[in-house]
Amino acid sequence: MAVPTYNSIKNSPLTQTFGMNEVAFLLFSEGKRYLLTVALNSCFGIFLVSPEATVSAHIPPHPGTNFTDPQAGDKNLISKMREFAAQYNSKKEYFSHYNVCLVIAKFHGKNPLPDKKAFIERCLRKFKVEFPIQDYEVKAPGEPRRDEHGTAFVDGMATSGAILYVEDKIAMRVKRPPSADAERVGSTTVPSSNPIFPREQSSDQQKSSGDTPNRRPAKEKDGQKESKPQLRYVKSTKSDTGARIVTIDERKVMIQAEEWKTAETNGRKILVCQRYMLYTDP
Predict the structure, then answer these.
(1) In angstroms, rounded to a whole number, what is the distance separating the alpha carbons of residues 55 and 222?
(2) CA pair distance 45, 87, nearest whole angstrom
């Protein structure tokens, strides 16, 4: 699958945008894949990202109002960081595994707003993770710039988890923990090596298999044989990109096209997603 870029996702129906002086939340399973902001020129970008969701903020040095108040910029920064924290606190269930990134402006190699940067860093340390700081170069009015200049977006449907891009370069990855898929569907993440739908054995086959030398007995637990993880059927809706939207535990989840594999059982073709232990109709 091609690596996403600003130009490739800016007009996509899978993209949600947010603007200057806004704080946004996006749950990736609700039909959108990307959260995008543009025109960061001199602004701060703050991104809290998990494999499930993101809270992101685009904060300017000055809100553009109250020009007679010399503290307007600082007051606005405090207000937006409180809004950022409130969004996180109200959506904590989606952030059991996360990281944060601070995106800052640089002008001739230096950050022009060190006091504001230091305040944001103090706030982000409360998340108790080592967070990357990604810079971008401020352009003067009329100075040539690439299309992706001053842009940042989160891709919440990358194969391994979620990725933050700043000016089309990877700034942060948040990989999905090994147990995350099991928690989502209440099943094991270890795919069965058996056929998808093993046919029932005849009595003769069962007898012969029981007499096979060196045959290992099935593991038993509490007097019962250990069961193999089973695939679960779900209805799905195909999106324009080939991804399929399914409902898992009353939540809509978008599963990318590359995660579905074609299989056949009893002459019937199906699509199988081993990651979620699901199957659906083609």
Answers:
(1) 45
(2) 16
Question: 47 vs 83, 180, 207, CA distance in Å?
Answer: 13, 21, 61
**Region(s) of the chain under CATH 3.30.1330:** 6-175
Whole-angstrom Cα Rg for the chain? 25
Work out the angle at residue 173's Cα, subtended by the Cα atoms of residues 45 and 251, and round it to the nearest 5 degrees.
90
pLDDT digits (tens, 9 = 90+) for 224-276: 544 556 788 888 888 766 778 887 766 677 777 777 888 887 778 888 887 77
Q: Which amino acid is at 112?
A: P
Tell me how far apart the alpha carbons of residues 56 and 28 are, in angstroms, rounded to a whole number: 13
Say if CB 201 and CB 210 are below 8 A apart: no
CA distance 87 to 79: 12
CB-facing half-sphere around the CA of 82: CA atoms within 13 A: 6
Say yes or no: domain 6-175 is CATH 3.40.630: no
Distance CA 38, CA 127 (A): 25
Tell me the two tokens of residue 38.
């543009």
Which residues partner with 232 through β-bridges? 278
Tens of pLDDT, residue by residue over 178-236, are 654 444 443 333 333 323 223 334 444 444 444 434 444 444 445 454 455 678 888 88
| Contact of 93 with 25, CB cutoff 8 Å | no
Other C-beta atoms within 10 Å of 215: how many?
9
Contact 257, 244 (CB under 8 A): yes
**CB of 40 within 8 A of CB of 167?**
no
Per the listing, tokens 């948040």 go with 174
Place of tokens 């269930």: 93
Q: How far apart are CA 7 and CA 20, in angstroms?
A: 19
Strands (E), 107-235: 133-137, 152-158, 161-166, 169-175, 220-221, 224-225, 232-233
